[in-house]
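Hello forum,

I keep getting stuck at the same step: I have a sequence, I want structure tokens, and every attempt I make locally crashes halfway through. Rather than fight my setup again tonight, could one of you with a working pipeline run this one for me? It's a single chain of 172 residues.
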Amino acid sequence: MKKYLLSLFVTLIFFSGCATTTYTKPILKGKISNPETEISARDGSFKISGEFKSPFQSSVHYHSFNIGGDKLINGYYRALEFNAKHVLIKVPSETKEFYGVLALDSADKNGIGPGTKSYKIVIPQAYVQAAKNGKISVVYEYYHLKNDGLLDTSNIKKYSWILWLSDKDIFK
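Reply #2:
Ran it on my machine without issues. Output:
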């Protein structure tokens, strides 16, 4: 009986410590590089342009988003499960709004670089053009992790924000 209680006590201590550990820090502000570009929530909950306060935090980077290629292009559906938002994007070069999904992630506490302190959302014209005719274009900013001395994590990329966009309403 004593052995059982000791095991139970050790297990409870171990799991209670894990439950309160936080490995991220919020990113509270950002800037959309072109002041004429506007991103608004499809549900009307926010609208951002120019310099902005972060209207939400998602947690996409904790769920295997250190990826690229087709997995990243089609990853918007998974991002929505981790608090990314459906958005409409107005860019000055286009008369029609684009549809999209926006993830504004918190930063890893071991992250280094400007992308851990604020978002800098840049939507290059080439990516706007690539999002036409129902295609999906993805723009993002990433940062690196500092080497902790045990493992070389300097090559790991974490996304501070990700924006999927298309001229068609395909993000359902």
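Residues 48 and 161 are 14 Å apart (CA to CA). If your local run keeps crashing, start a new thread with the error log.
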